[in-house]
Amino acid sequence: MHLINFKNLSSQQLMDIIDKAIEVKKNPEKYKAALEGKSLAMIFQKTSTRTRVAFEVAMTQLGGHALYIDWRTTNFTIADVYDETQYLSRNVDCIMARLLRNSDLQVMAKASRVPVINGCDEKYHPSQAIADLMTMKEKKGKLEGLKLVYIGIHNNVCNSLIEGCIKTGVRITTVTPIFNEPSRDDELLKSAEKSGLWETSLDVEEAVKDTDFVYTDTWVDMEFFTDPKFSAEKEKRLKIMMPYQVNKKLLEKSNAYIMHDMPIHRGYEISADVVESPRSIIYEQSENRLYSAKAILLKLLENSE
Ligand code: CP
């Protein structure tokens, strides 16, 4: 079983992972030898703070071992993804990969004899969404019937949030004036539409009324943030997106918890005072990446030889 997105997970399986994450957070001792002798290869084509740290610490605290592999230092750069993964999966028990292209991740999943976890590609960020749903459940004691508003670019994080919300009975409204085309997954959006739990709107003031959570994300993907070739697109995006900044004025009448998957760009998608406000659960949400990584690893590696 791989975790590329949530398409092959039932609602119950997803809810079980979320509940396991909450459980391992409460009882870390119980799991300290759960993955004894197991190795996780973590391969990165892009930068990361949380995903790398969370999965590496998760393996250590579960009694296993994680290897950080910078893609650029490997022979993945000069050979087939398929062949290199065939090898890799014969020496480790699990692979977590942050790749630029979902198509390469699909090749990796096909070639691998062990579970492959998507550490964020251009289409999905499932391990982030599990931490998000875990945080929401911790705050409210349930998921079904809650409401979340996502304000930002329609991107990989947005896709996984939509998928995760509709599988767990959370109503989600996306306010996304820009659609990041590489993230497009029409099948996912069609099934979200069918669920009746997803809607999209550009009326940001209306959307934040009566919502339990307001969620935002960067307007520029990590691989382009400091790329001079992307600067014109970055300027264009800032102009379009500034009226959609999550700030005090927008939240004047709101009691919603504030979420962000980080890294944060203060003064752009969110104002600094909102990051620091009492309703912000951003740092707890980031801490929960560790427990959700543990739950994912336990789910994928349980009963594996
Ligand atoms: N949210 C998230 O995935 O953080 P990193 O990019 O730092 O891993």
Polypeptide structure, described:
The protein is an alpha/beta fold. The chain has 2 domains: 11-124 and 288-304, Aspartate/ornithine carbamoyltransferase (Rossmann fold); 126-285, 3-Layer(aba) Sandwich (Rossmann fold), CATH 3.40.50.1370. The chain has 11 helices and 9 strands. The chain has helices at 11-26, 50-61, 81-91, 102-111, 126-140, 156-168, 186-195, 204-208, 231-241, 272-275, 282-301, and strands spanning 39-44, 65-70, 94-98, 116-118, 147-154, 171-179, 198-200, 213-216, 257-260. The strands form 2 sheets. A 5-stranded parallel sheet has the order 7-6-5-8-9. Strands 2-1-3-4 form a 4-stranded parallel sheet, with helices on both faces. Helix 9 links the parallel strand 8 and strand 9 (257-260). The structure holds phosphoric acid mono(formamide)ester. Phosphoric acid mono(formamide)ester (CP) binds at residues 48-51, 120, 128, 261-263.
Record the SSE blueprint.
Blueprint: H1 11-26, E1 39-44, H2 50-61, E2 65-70, H3 81-91, E3 94-98, H4 102-111, E4 116-118, H5 126-140, E5 147-154, H6 156-168, E6 171-179, H7 186-195, E7 198-200, H8 204-208, E8 213-216, H9 231-241, E9 257-260, H10 272-275, H11 282-301
Parallel strand pairs: 1-2, 1-3, 3-4, 5-6, 5-8, 6-7, 8-9
Helix pairs in contact: 1-5, 1-11, 2-11, 3-4, 5-6, 5-11, 6-7
The chain binds phosphoric acid mono(formamide)ester.
